[in-house]
Amino acid sequence: MSNRALLEVIALDAADAVAAEAGGADRLELVTDMAADGLTPPRAVFAAVRAAVDIPLRVMLRATDGFAAGDVAALAAEARALRAEGAQEFVLGFLTADGAPDLAAVEALAAELAGCRWTFHRAIDRAADRAGLRKALADRPGLDTYLTAGSADGVDAGLPVLLAEAARRGEPGYEPRILVGGGLRLDHLPTLRAGGLDAFHIGGAARPRGWTHPVSTTAVTQWRNALDA
Predict the structure, then answer these.
(1) CA distance 40 to 69
(2) Strand (E) or helix (H) holding 103
(3) What's the pTM?
């Protein structure tokens, strides 16, 4: 069994996807509007990316900045349309105004994603009770990953939480894989890898010239090499 760490890269379009795959990415997170932390991409963009690369891609289901679900019926319609285009993996996650998981919204979308695998994204880092959120979402069909920095302030602040949660892998609520992302840097990797973390997510780090620039194959390769070292 391979112990290769998973490297997921944010892509905005087919050019990003091709560059990320060439650099050694294992999977893509497909979004639009990185300034809003990633929203649902147009279906035509998904189709172009799917045609351009062979690696798996997870599609964001999120209509507005922040972690309120907004119009759940519209998101469900987008999920159906994306599935009809061939999407098989997704990213989602919503909180109520008091920081609890929005179970009604999550369950409504999960029902549209039957048979699909999905990530609960960094809404967990804004939750009022991380452990409670994990307990509330335990055993949700398809949920196989939490994208988290361990803290709303990023990996620097969240390292102790990430290591503590990794140590609980396999316990109820802690079965999904931890995908580390949010202010992640190369110098974090030795500590995270030593703590058993094996999945990593980069956005800005794949774009060393800035968020508005395309993915750099060279930057992705640097991360791939660091993870394989």
Answers:
(1) 12
(2) helix 103-112
(3) 0.96
